[in-house]
Amino acid sequence: MKSKLTGLGVALVTPFTDNGEIDFAALNRVVDNVIEGGVDYLVVMGTTGETPTLSMPERVALLRAVKERNAGRLPIVVGVGGNDTARVVELINQTNLDGVDAILSVTPFYNKPSQRGLFEHYKYIAERSPRPIILYNVPGRTGVNMEAETTLRIARECPNVIATKEASGNIEQIKAIIDAAPEDFMVISGDDSLALPIIKAGGYGVISVAANAFPRYFSRMIGDQFEGKYDETEAMFERIRPTVKMLFAEGNPPGVKAAMAVKGLLRNNLRLPLVPVSDELYGSIEATIKAEGFE
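Above: the chain's sequence. Below: its structure in token form.
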């Protein structure tokens, strides 16, 4: 699994038509663009995909469409998470996992479990899942941080848990996991801005938002980082840093969808409670993309 999920993953957006339906034609463009741009694997129905607004029939149709368009070209990770442990297992069992390599499962949100509760949550899921589990720690969204020792306990005691997507923003916590993790356990950056230092510290790559819009640029940068070209990659990130900052200035995925709309990949539509970025920010993103020519 390491060989499949090392490098640049992309957390796919879900395009919508002006009527608010899934835009499958645009989805095909997005999938083709990131694959042709050199990403290493696809992540479907994560946070960036606006998954909480998708009905179960839409989730089924979305995953099926991505698998069909991908046609076996890249590994696929699918997001299945929640704050009701038994329900997460039900959702996994209801998902067609043919052609799916792993499941990304976010820490329970809103009910704020203890560290022991987090361990028991993932232990229960891992024991019942037919696919390997990737933990997803994103305290800025869930209200709870999975501490390094909890992640390491899961890594040691739950063999069906193969990785963690760390989006805590706490580089010391992330390095502590990398330093003490079992040899076959992967630490993946959940933040575009921390991808380079995490890889340098021994991480296995990044699940990127920005790669939806700039797959070629990020593919080259991440690839060069694994080759130890640290000066070159630092310069590359410094060049694109202001653009990445703009992508998150009014939340995710509004910013990256604005960039993708500028590039003609999709229409700039989101589902409430998310709304498009302000006209001012859209103009700044558009001007930067045209000036820099990021691909």
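The longest strand covers residues 161-166.
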